[in-house]
C-alpha cells in the first residue's frame, strides 16, 4: 500500500504542479480556439493570469510565509542535545553519480548546518535520513552523497547513522525512529528547510517522536518589500510550487492519518 501511495503521489504531482497545470490549461484553451470554440479564450486568459500574478504580486511569499514562520528557531540553542537529525532533499544523487563529487541543490544549508551542529554538540548522535525520492534515479542514494560530503568535511563516518531507505517525509520519521529508538526526555534537533518544517514536525510527532526541537534553515521569505520582489520569475514560480506542495502534503498526510492536524501546534 505504501508503494502504491508513493507512486500515486509522484504521478499526480506532474499535472498538479501549478506551473504545469497552468500550461496544460493554456494549451487546452489554444486547442479549443483552433477548433473554433470561443470559450477557449477563458482558459488561455486563466493560464496567462496565473503567470501574470506571479510577476505582479508576491504570491509566492504569501503562500510560503505561514510555513516558514510556523516554527522559528529557538532564541537560544539548547545547552544539551542528544541527537541531530538532518533530512534529505539537499543533494542531487544523479549529478553526484555522473560527476563523482557531491552535488548540492538550493537546500544545501541542511547539509552545512548539520556539520555546524555536529561540531557544536560533539557528544550528540548524528542522523541523516534520505534514500531515493524519485522515479528516475541511479545507483546511489542521498545518504551515499551525504556520507561522501560529510566525511570529506571531517565528520567521522562511525559517528553518523545514515538512513538510506526513506523516500518521503513520513518514511524519514518512521525509519529514523526505528533506527535510533529515542528515549523519553531526550532532546533531538530536527534540521530541514523552514518551509518544510511544519510537515516534518507533524509527521515526526505522528511517528512517535516526542523530544523534537525544530531547527529550520534555508529560508526563502522575509517581511519586507525588498525581499518580496527581489527574486526573478523562475525563482518565484519555484517558491510558489514548493509552498503549494507543502500545503498539499500537510492536507494529504492529515487525511491519511499520519498527522494529528493539518498544521501542527507550536
From TrEMBL:
Please give the InterPro entries that the UniProt record associates with this protein. Answer: Cell_Envelope_Assoc, DUF218, Rossmann-like_a/b/a_fold
Task: Report keywords, A-Z.
Answer: Membrane, Transmembrane, Transmembrane helix
The record's Gene Ontology biological-process terms are:
Gram-negative-bacterium-type cell wall biogenesis; peptidoglycan metabolic process
Positions of the DUF218 domain: 82-249
Q: What residues form the membrane-spanning segments?
A: 12-33, 42-63
Coiled-coil region(s) at which residues? none
A single GO CC term for this protein reads: plasma membrane
Gene3D superfamilies under this entry? HUPs
Q: Name one Pfam family in it.
A: DUF218
Q: Show the PANTHER family listed in the entry.
A: ENVELOPE BIOGENESIS FACTOR ELYC (PTHR30336:SF4), INNER MEMBRANE PROTEIN, PROBABLE PERMEASE (PTHR30336)
Q: What is this protein called?
A: YdcF family protein
Q: Which organism is it from?
A: Neoroseomonas soli
Query: Upper taxonomic classification of the species?
Result: Bacteria, Pseudomonadati, Pseudomonadota, Alphaproteobacteria, Acetobacterales
Amino acid at each position: 500500500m505504501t508503494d502504491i501511495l508513493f507512486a500515486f503521489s509522484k504521478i499526480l504531482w506532474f499535472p498538479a504542479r501549478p506551473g504545469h497545470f497552468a500550461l496544460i490549461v493554456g494549451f487546452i484553451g489554444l486547442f479549443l480556439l483552433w477548433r473554433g470554440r470561443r470559450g477557449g479564450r477563458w482558459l488561455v486568459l486563466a493560464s496567462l493570469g496565473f503567470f501574470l500574478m506571479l510577476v505582479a504580486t508576491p504570491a509566492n511569499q504569501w503562500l510560503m510565509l505561514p510555513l516558514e514562520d510556523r516554527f522559528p528557531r529557538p532564541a537560544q540553542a539548547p545547552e544539551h542535545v542528544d541527537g541531530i537529525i538532518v533530512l534529505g532533499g539537499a543533494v542531487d544523487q544523479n549529478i553526484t553519480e555522473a560527476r563523482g563529487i557531491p552535488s548540492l541543490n538550493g537546500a544545501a544549508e541542511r547539509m552545512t548546518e548539520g556539520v555546524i551542529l555536529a561540531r557544536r554538540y560533539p557528544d550528540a548522535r548524528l542522523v541523516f535520513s534520505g534514500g531515493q525520492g524519485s522515479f528516475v534515479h541511479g545507483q546511489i542514494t542521498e545518504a551515499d552523497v551525504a556520507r561522501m560530503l560529510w566525511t570529506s568535511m571531517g565528520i567521522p563516518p562511525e559517528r553518523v547513522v545514515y538512513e538510506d531507505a526513506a523516500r518521503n517525509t513520513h518514511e524519514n520519521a518512521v525509519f529514523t525512529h526505528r533506527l535510533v529508538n529515542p528515549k523519553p526526555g531526550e532532546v533531538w534537533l530536527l534540521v530541514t528547510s523552514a518551509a518544510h518544517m511544519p510537515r516534518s514536525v507533524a509527521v515526526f510527532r505522528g511517528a512517535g517522536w516526542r523530544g523534537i526541537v525544530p531547527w529550520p534553515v534555508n529560508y526563502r521569505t522575509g517581511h519586507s518589500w525588498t525581499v518580496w520582489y527581489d527574486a526573478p520569475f523562475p525563482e518565484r514560480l519555484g517558491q510558489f510550487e514548493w509552498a503549494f506542495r507543502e500545503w498539499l502534503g500537510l492536507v494529504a498526510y492529515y487525511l491519511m492519518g499520519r498527522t494529528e492536524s493539518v498544521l501542527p501546534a507550536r
